[in-house]
Write a structure and sequence with these properties.
195 residues, mainly alpha, Leucine-rich Repeat Variant, 2 domains, 11 helices, 64% helix
Length: 195
Amino acid sequence: MKRYSVYICLVLLTILIQEAGCFFDLQRPTNTELDASINKLRSADETERYAGLNEVWGYGKYGKAAFPEARNLLKDENPYIRSKAIITLDSMGKTGDVIPELIGLLGDYNKEYNGPRFYSAIVLGELGAKAYEAVPTLIKLLDDTGTTRWAAAEALGKIGKAAKPAIPKLRQLLQDEDEFAKGKAREAINKLESL
């Protein structure tokens, strides 16, 4: 349960940052600061790359000049950096430009950390109908474990009509022991059946 709480907090924080203009002023970097952050994204040192992503994430929409470098980090060997790259691109409002990469990350299996799969599913759901190509892969993720299942269920509900083929698999998830996954499956079924 503690692990779910951490992921829920991270998801809420991501959404908050995405809508940050409503709550606080994003840090508008100077050109020098943005250039320094972009250089960190290009670094061979993973600690530097992660620090650069944190900086660019804080710039939100003002960090769009770092888009090419952040996009490249979706392929980083470190799954924590791949996850942070997803969140950073989301804060820029640029995830619609990386749908194929996000779909590819849904298959990013790492036994210790499922962040890239989880965050990709969350962000694809936020994109709604634009992410229709992700439906077959999201349906497969309903067989995954933990938070990835409920993130996939939620995403399918948000994608809409194109996700109607997921209803039988979502119904199977209603028999799961995980109450949160069941709840997300129920929500998705209700949304999809109402279309």
